[in-house]
Amino acid sequence: MMKIKKICCVGAGFVGGPTMAVIASQCPEIKVYVVDHNKEKIKLWNHSNLDKLPVFEPGLKEIIAKTRNKNLFFSSDVDKYIIESEMIFLAVNTPTKQSGEGKGMAADLTNIEKCAKTISEVANQDKIIIEKSTLPVRTAEKLKQILNSKNNDIKFEILSNPEFLAEGTAIKDLFKSDRVLIGSEDTESAKEAVEKLCEIYERWIPKEKILLTNIWSSELSKLASNAFLAQRISSINSLSAFCEKTGAKIQEVASAVGKDIRIGDKFLNASIGFGGSCFKKDILNLVYLSNYYGLNEVGEYWHQVVKINDYQKSRFVKKILESLKNRIVNSKIVLMGWSFKKNTNDSRESASIFLANELIKKGANIIVIDPLSNISKIKNDLVDFMQGEDFEDYSSNEFKDKIQFSTSYFEASKNADAIIISTEYDEFKNYNWKKLYSIVTKPALIFDGRILLDRNKIEKIGFNLYQIGN
Ligand code: UGA
Fold it and tell me: 165: CA distance to ligand 1 center in Å?
């Protein structure tokens, strides 16, 4: 089999960029090309100012500085580098389908299928094709059909090699992966392809952490891993509602439960609900696939994870509306946190978008504080959300004027009727809450969706504090 001298990754996003940067840093003799049709994005990856990279991840710019234009290249000439490379990673996005069969549930495979079609059209030598994107189980079958549609002698080996990195810790996760998963068919040529991929990872990942499975297991394991993580959050969030009725405290329960090493203490932080681009999308995809295979009970089981997440967000809004009662119209509400978790500027599926929308619909004015966001991003997020929800009776402009952004938490909080904590930024803890108390409208209300604040301290100042699960 061919020697790997050139690798191409289609998709210069959150997964493709950091993953290829790490591969390039560990394999100096291999040329790594990250390609994307989006010229703007490629321009930013090539920007001389490394603070302008399109993905913010701690440690990323240092690696880019060392590898870029040495053996790591970013280009919008997709065909050229597909032709030249022996190994091609597919790291394009697979959002939830917005129309047609499976609308709102299934993964939209348009991008990945387009990639396969391009490869099939331009390839003039055998290639290893690697699924990096999160995909429905049995996608490799579909890819194979497309890749082989040209009926020539070129052979494609398809491997599944899902990514498990989380935003904000991508580089750390890539270097210290809990596992690298490689799924393949059970043929000699597939095993050779697996060997080639292992040779790359083994430069920095201990051999025992590289798991080899069949291709469908690998595809399913990615969906299953995200489903398990999300399920833990929904489990603890469901019990947070229980705690509020009974006087139990969710953090104490989480700590007691998590001490059992069979359960473990990670991912048991009760919250306003999980966000991010993956959990909801992947679980809905799992639900869709379960139903597709006639496994309706299985589908229903996993669907409940998303339903509890929605319930958690709605419950939180209801609490705010009940507390503000008839003061909600024209009220001023400070929303602390816009991103879906701390240390990222990503706001996809953030609970803050849902909250802002619900409160504005009831007549509130929202002012957002977030260290990594800005007003145009916030407005765009809201308009996108509104359109997705079909709020036909809203004109965008009217809606958009109800939201503002501030870089001063003090200015923002003057005469505020309520403060909401939606993202777990540490700096919110260190705000001068005494000073804030003196300038907000009384009764001074705080709704802490992340159990971030110290209850004793905050209540002593005089605030009425609602915390999830307490
Ligand atoms: C997630 C997975 O953690 C990664 O392993 C996976 O590779 C990635 O999706 C993906 O498929 O691309 P990510 O979405 O970046 O990573 O973020 P997480 O750290 O998993 O957080 C997701 C959401 O859950 C956030 O809103 C976070 O605040 C929330 N969360 C997390 C909680 O509410 N409670 C917790 O205890 C943990």
Answer: 9
